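Subject: sequence -> C-alpha cells, single chain

Hey, anyone have a minute? Need the predicted structure for the following. Not urgent.
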Amino acid sequence: RNWKRTIVVSLAVVAFAVAIGAALASAFGERGENDEITGFNPADDTRTVLANARAALAGGDFARAQRLFVLADQDERARGSDNAEARTYVGWTTALLARQLAGESLAPDDELLGQGLLALNQAIAIDPTFSDPYCFVAIIEFNFRDDAAAALPFVEQCESNNPPADVAFLIDGFASEIRAAADE
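Reply:
Had a minute. Here:
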C-alpha cells in the first residue's frame, strides 16, 4: 500500500469538499440586514400575511382580511417599524366592515369609520408618497360620509401619487363625481 498516494488523494478530496462548501456558502449563505442566523428574515412572514390578507380582501372576506392586516401591522410594530401598507388596509377594512355592518341603512357606525380614518391618516404620516390611504380617505369621505369637499384634496393627492392599477380603477369612478359634487 502506498501511504503517500493515499494521503495526497485524501487531501485532494478534502480540499475539493472545502472548495465546494465555500462556493455554496458564498452563493447562498449570505445574510442580509435583520436576517436571523438561519437566514430567515421576519419581514418575509409579514409579506406572506399581507399577501393572504389581500387575497381575503379581494374575495370580499373583510373580517378575515382585517384580522390579517392587523396581525401584519402588529408584527411590524413589535419589530420597531411601521408598515404603511398594513396600516392603510387596517383602516380601509375597518371602514368596509363599518359599511357592511350598517346593512341596508347605509349609515356606517361613526366610531368605526373614525377608527378607520385614524389608521389611514397614520399611514399617510408613515409614507406620504403611498397613494392608497389618500384614495381610501377620499372614498370614505365622499361615499360613506357624503362630504365631497372633504374628499376632494384626498382624491387629488391620490391621483398625484400614481396609485396602482387596482386602486386607480377604484378611484376613477369616484374622482369625477367628487369633483362635480365639490363644485356645486
